[in-house]
Amino acid sequence: MIISQNHSVLLLILSFLVISKSQGNVHYYDFVLKEKNFTKLCSTKCILTVNDNFPGPTIHVHKGDTAFVTVHNQGRYGVTIHWHGVREPRDPWSDGPENITQCPIPPGTSFTQKVAFTLEEGTLWWHAHSSWTRATVHGAIVILPANGIYPFPEPCGQNILIIGEWYKGDVMQIANAARTTGAGPKASDAYTINGQPGDFYDCSIENTDRFLVDHGKTYLFRIINAAMNEEMFFGVANHNLILVGIDGSYTKPLNTSFIMITPGQTMDVLVSTNQPKGLYYIAASPFFDGNDRDDNSPTTAILEYSENYQPSPSFIPMPVLPAVNDSGRVFNFTKSLRGLASQDHPANVPINVTRRIYMTVSLNELPCQYPNGSCLGPNGNRLASSLNNISFQIPQIDILQAYYWNISGVFSEDFPDQPPFFYNFTGDTGSNTLIPSTGTRVLMFDYNEVVELVWQGTSVLAAVNHAMHLHGFSYFVVGVGTGNFNNVTDPKCYNLIDPPEVNTIGLPKNGWLAMRFVANNPGVWYMHCHLERHASSGMDTVLIVRDGGTMQTSMVPPPKYMPPCS
User: Fold this and answer.
1) For the whole prediction, is pTM greater than 0.90?
2) Which ranges of 114-226 does DSSP label H, i.e. alpha helix?
3) Separation of alpha carbons 273 and 270, rounded Å
4) What mean pLDDT value characterizes the chain?
5) How far apart are CA 327 and CA 290, in angstroms?
6) Distances from the Cα of 350 to the Cαs of 431, 552, 553, in angstroms?
7) For the chain, what is the largest distance between any 2 Cα atoms, rounded to a whole number of angstroms?
8) CA distances from 491 to 419, 423, 452, 501, 515 (A)
9) Phi and psi at residue 202, to the nearest 5°
10) At residue 372, does pLDDT exceed 90?
11) With CB atoms 3.0 to 4.6 Å apart as the test, which of 11, 284, 389, 563 could cross-link to 232 if both were Cys?
């Protein structure tokens, strides 16, 4: 009898250990938001930081782990934090976009968010999701394989590289000025790598970031584009890159001299140190395909070989990156991306589509809000943007709360699956589409609907690339093309075998992009362009996935405390 009881206890302990291991480890982080002075470009300014750092701290986990992050807001503004690319299964309460899934965390208060890493593996990131605060409030998330085994030879070392932008002015004032005047927001004053502008900016050369490497090794670089408004070319002088991951998902190895990374995207690249020992510039330069361009220099860091060499050469080679407006190479790079689609990392591409959505993505105008005045946008109006000719309006209380508690008057469930007018890719549709409608209109989905969504670029006001991001899901990019999407001929060229699985992708200028996902994550999920100047002017909407028929297919209840809406 005693032996039997001991055996039962042992089995119970072993079962608990197996369950605990299968569910991963639990990590706890404290993020203290507060203002701190930083000096760059020969001047000092106060910025909002996390734990006094810019960029902020890195979250390190394994696939299957859970992190609880307590955000302590000691700043001047209400702020939210978003875990970019983390699906948060059935739990939108911790997703973070302001007035979409929560109201901002008031100054002087704290809020704990649960971040569950389930299917993601690779590099993601976190950032503020309130107005323009993410300019300085962001950091990396490193998700290691649960078993410690990569689908490529294990690198000798790993480095995090975050591309950003630096503004001499106060970013909140810049955003408010754009809203008040109707003009486009002021451009940044520098691009940065890990918070440093690099050698080609004033008062910056002493702080340029350096990556120390040994000769004859291979290193994994985890690259994040945290810039507010710029898609970026990236490369390392005289070194090829092998792309092996995007957005927390593995890719087939892509040997390339450069990558093009949009705001919101993450890319994992291998760099082999097989060149003569010395110094080599790492650089990121902007890709502009519209009319508005700034004059910022490329941001640089340095790849430094650790062995004997001339320590301060008179010439450091620069990577040869595409021209600033080379949209052809951008398109070809996007089209060349392939998911790994291996036995251990399969591509579960949805095949039997039950819901098809065609969504135009446009820049627009809205009438000036001053009855007797003139705004500084085009034609004396305000700059705006839209999806399916609807410029989204952020409500005063969060949509998730309104949906869960059946609060009326906050949003309407009538976002259309098709645009109200036919667009051709030149946007030649007359004034009907120049001034969009406005409202807080959302897309509703039944649980487990198989969705194909085609984003269609237009040039109603101007034609540019857009960085399209979806919360709560990763999606498969099954097709991309130029001109107008043809729903008869273009699907014949879809890649349903090994498409890349992403959460953010560049929609080509005057082109289309088709993606698929299964609506199996109940809750309220934000979709928007990750160019901040577009997201803050209406290029966004919300997807609501209804509960399934069981507890396991339904949204979890809210935590005991959520930040109040005032």
Assistant:
1) yes
2) 171-181
3) 10
4) 92
5) 10
6) 38, 21, 19
7) 91
8) 19, 19, 11, 18, 11
9) -60, 145
10) no
11) 284
Give residue-wise pLDDT tens across range 288-343. Answer: 876 655 667 899 999 999 986 666 677 899 999 999 999 999 999 999 999 999 99
Cα dihedral: 153, 154, 160, 161 (round 10): -20
Total number of residues shown for the chain: 566
Report the DSSP beta bridge partners of residue 196.
193
Contact 500, 337 (CB under 8 A): yes
Rounded-to-integer distance, Cα 445 and Cα 413, Å: 10
Q: How far is the C-alpha of 341 from the C-alpha of 424, rounded, in Å?
A: 35
Q: What's the CA gap between 418 and 33, in Å, rounded?
A: 42
> How does residue 482 score in pLDDT terms, banded at 50, 70 and 90?
very high
DSSP character string of 217-263 = -EEEEEEEE--SS-EEEEEETTB-EEEEEETTEEEEEEEES-EEE-T
* 378: phi then psi, degrees, rounded to nearest 5: -60, 140
**Is beta strand 523-529 parallel, antiparallel or unpaired with respect to 466-470?**
antiparallel
Residues 6+ apart with CB under 8 A from 462: 290, 291, 363
Give the Cα separation of 433 and 416 in Å (integer).
15
Spatial strand order of the sheet with 210-213 comes to 210-213, 299-305, 279-287, 231-236, 259-261
In the sheet that holds 466-470, the strands lie side by side as 443-445, 540-545, 523-529, 466-470, 504-507
Burial class from Cβ neighbours inside 10 Å (0-12, 13-18, 19+) for residue 501 reads buried
Rounded CA separation 181/167 (Å): 19
Residue 87 in contact with residue 522, Cβ under 8 Å? no
How many other C-beta atoms lie within 10 A of the C-beta of residue 90?
A: 21
Q: How many CA atoms lie within 13 A of 72 on its CB side?
A: 9
Residue 509 CA to residue 104 CA, distance in Å, equals 34
CB 370 within 8 A of CB 523: no
Closest CA to 392 of 188, 198, 545, 542: 542
CA 2 to chain centroid: 58
* Token pair for 180: 């008040």
Tokens of 528: 């928007």
Query: From residue 480, how far is each of 57, 333, 419, 495, 526 by CA, in Å?
Result: 36, 11, 19, 10, 22
Tokens 């699985």 locate to 501
Which of 147-156, 299-308, 372-381 is modeled with the greatest confidence? 147-156
CA dihedral 234, 238, 244, 247 (to 10 degrees): -10
How many angstroms separate the CA atoms of 158 and 223, rounded?
11
Return the structure tokens found at 523.
Answer: 């809750």
CB proximity list for 285: less than 8 A, separation 6 or greater: 191, 232, 233, 298, 299, 321, 324
Taking the C-alpha atoms of residue 518 and residue 564, their distance in angstroms, rounded to an integer, is: 32
pLDDT digits over 62-96, tens only?
999 999 999 999 999 999 999 999 999 999 999 99
